[in-house]
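DM from R.C. (forwarded with permission)

"hey, sorry to bug you on a friday — could you get me a structure for this? deadline for the figure draft is monday and I only need the backbone to look sensible"
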Amino acid sequence: MPSSPAEPSPRSETRSRDALWGGPRVALAAILAGAAALRLVGVGYGLPFPLLSPDEQSIVPRAWKMVHGGGLDPHWFDYPSLLMYLLAPFQAWEHEPSYLAARLVVVALALGAVAAAWWLGSRAYGGAAGPIAAAAVAVEATHVAYSRMAVTDVPLTLGVTASLALLVSGRIEVGGLAVGLAMSFKYPGIFLLVPLVVAGYRQPRRLVLGLVAAAAAFCATSPFFVVHFGSAVSDAYHVQKLARQGWLGFEHDHAAPIAFVDRLWLGLGPALLVCGLGLVLALTHRRRTDLILASFVLVYFLDLCTLGAHFDRYVLPLVPPLAVLAGRVRSLAPVTLLLLVVPLTWTIRDDRRLTKTDTREAAHAWVERHIPRGARLAADPSLPPFEHFRVLELRLPLPEEERADPNRDLTRLRNQGIRYAIVTGAVADRVLAAREHYPKETAFYESLKTLTQRLYYVREDGLNGPWVAVYRL
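My reply, with the result:
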């Protein structure tokens, strides 16, 4: 009798599918290509003005100065120095600080974070965890938004993801090195010391080497933090103190745990439910990989719970490990991938907005055309620099400040010879929404409306961005 054909093995079926679809490399390349497309839209938004984030003005000019005779000492330690050192070589041929060049470097780091998420998922749980993690980071709305800003949050996320991938792979010493680099992108990278200890506590010699490697990597890539240790610690403490006190716009926010879960939801959408289930399973089973990932998620989130400023960017380091934990739930892998369509649509919506002109650009152009050069004017934060004018910069109102900005007073401005005031909804709307916290600032904005002449007003009407108004005092 003729023999019946042998049943194909699962491994041969997997190889056949890989041959048909191109395998993991093609899948990763496709995810990276999609991630790059989402991030490159709007990468030049607002230029030459750094309108995407005010922190760009603190980082990019310092990086430019390093390669134009300023030396490697930033003389500023609100953030560590590694990102500035990475940006500096790409500023060497620029005649002035190039925000576009800096943003493109961060886009590259963001794509590295997507690839690192695949690596972390594959090392942690195998199967679909790698693709799910990479796809989640690729489309997560907050990660996409900050990937085109030359600030520290996305580089920190890359450092976190690479560190965790090394630790779950058992590479404790090299993992410690990556921990130090993550800390040198942004100080909250220090919370990676917790999973480092979890990974190496049964191997004390390797753990000590990992801790030494972390310290050495931080000191090597932010050396002037050590040189100016006292002032550097003071700067870092001041930044953390402000975050704990709160920030303009969060006065009526939910308590920090709820607020930051909300920020995660606004980035991941309903896929966050699967992430939560994966975290519960990790805490239930408590395998080595589970403990490494869960320890970082929990300690980092507990620190967030102490903050009064609930910026969405603060949750970014949580996104890759949470996405990997979602991939842990293998039975829900197709559902998880389907749910990622939701943040993808949010990201595309946000990208479309960045194809429009910013209202603040339009206001800047109007001021250049209609106000005599050299005139004295007062300007809110979050506006472009008015280089051809004598500008008095109004301070950003903050909770628990010792005193309000005395310049937010019409009589005082007039006595100083200020003839124009330029204000924006990016500040005014938040002040007026919490007027009980900012009575002096509220009175200032209301007096502008009633006691001065409004010369110009622009809002989001075919444009993008906050309203801007120009008043003659």
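R.C.: lifesaver. The beta strands are 376-379, 390-393, 420-424, 453-458, 468-472.
me: no worries. The CA atoms of residues 216 and 385 lie 39 Å apart.
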